[in-house]
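Form P-L/3: holo structure prediction, ligand acetyl coenzyme *A.
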Amino acid sequence: MDGLPGFGQAIMRSMSEYEIRTLDPAEHRAAADLFRGTLHLKDLTDEEAERGRGSYQPGRSIGAFDGELVGTLRSLDAELTVPGGRRVPLAGVTSVGVRSDRTRRGLMTELMRAQFADFAERGVVAATLYASEGLIYSRFGYGISTLSKSYSINTRRAQLHDGVPASGEITRLPLETALEQLPKLYEAMPHTRAGMMTRTSYWWAGFGQMCRQSDDPMITVVHRGEDGPDGFAVYSVRRRWPDPAVLSIEALEYTNPGAFAGLWRYLLGVDLVDEIRTLFRPVDEPAELLLTDPRQCTVTRYEEECWTRLVDVEAALAARTYTGPPLVLEVVDAFLPANSGRYRIGEDGVARTDEPAALRLDVVALAMLYFGARQASALATAGRVEVLEPGAAEAADLLFSTRVAAWCGTFF
Ligand SMILES: CC(=O)SCCNC(=O)CCNC(=O)[C@H](O)C(C)(C)COP(=O)(O)OP(=O)(O)OC[C@H]1O[C@@H](n2cnc3c(N)ncnc32)[C@H](O)[C@@H]1OP(=O)(O)O
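OUTPUT (holo model):
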């Protein structure tokens, strides 16, 4: 991935007008305020800035200057679990913003180029982000890689069915204790889904800031099963009479059915709550099946979760596992053309090849296929995959299939 074609020229062109460079840690607060401004939010107060200290990873923020800072983006290092369970180096991309009087003149594009060059140098295999809008990122090779649903439960009418396990114990932790203990707890938990990522101290600093700044108290409960802690939930309750009281789940992590059931048993039993709301949950999470009347759980949104950019396509393809006979895919990558080419993909591995391709697709469609969020045949129906050999789309459906839905679950 050395020497990304086009990168040198583009940076030189932009350098004549704008300076694009890595930010010094002393500039992180200005970058945070610039980004907040692009979201129409106020600057941080000193107290808020202090609460969020440590959330910007040094060396991972880039700025665009024309005398002053006018554009920025940053990333967090992490490891990404891919189908089959291996982990690859991931960049969690966030805080992308260009000041409103400098938009639509290519600044984000230059920031992205600089960021990809940095990723290539450091051997980052994939980059993931949560997008503010659906039209921004596919031009850079990001595709919707995980899907999610949000659901709401009417707690006044919901009842657990008789078969829901009742083992384990719930302990409520004070916020500061929780913020101290959760990182270790999360680290010890296996990644049960492809798409999950590790969380460094920088991520936890941002999570801590969000919890401390919440208008309603953030409550943490840990579930302990036979073998120790195996799940936790973080939630807040908004109770403004005469409106219905709503418990909003900020985090819900569990490693086995006992922890899933135990956490829901607790959450459904919290007093003075009318409704529980979740956001960005795995599409196959079976919360409604815990209930005697599944209709007390309503899916309120079904949507994208993350967008992923396979930065190093060969390394990404080689890292995951496959099912069924091999196929040759031709991948087209306009933004990072070194990735373009044909790949033979099978249970026994992945290699570049000169053999004729059975399917042709761009790197955006490949991201949609990679975690099993979308099937090749659906992508072909939507005109996003070109079928060059009869039956190839169905063969790719099997090849890329995954047992459980992929999901990230780590908002940043
Ligand atoms: C992961 C995250 O951080 S998500 C948060 C993203 N940030 C925001 O939503 C904050 C508000 N928006 C912004 O700050 C800016 O509009 C940005 C960062 C999204 C875009 O910055 P810009 O410097 O204007 O982008 P740039 O000029 O490089 O645009 C490149 C192309 O993308 C298009 N584009 C950029 N933003 C958008 C958008 N929001 N919707 C549609 N198209 C867009 C441009 O029109 C341009 O297209 P072209 O190449 O066909 O001319």
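COMMENT: Residues 293 and 393 are 39 Å apart (CA to CA).
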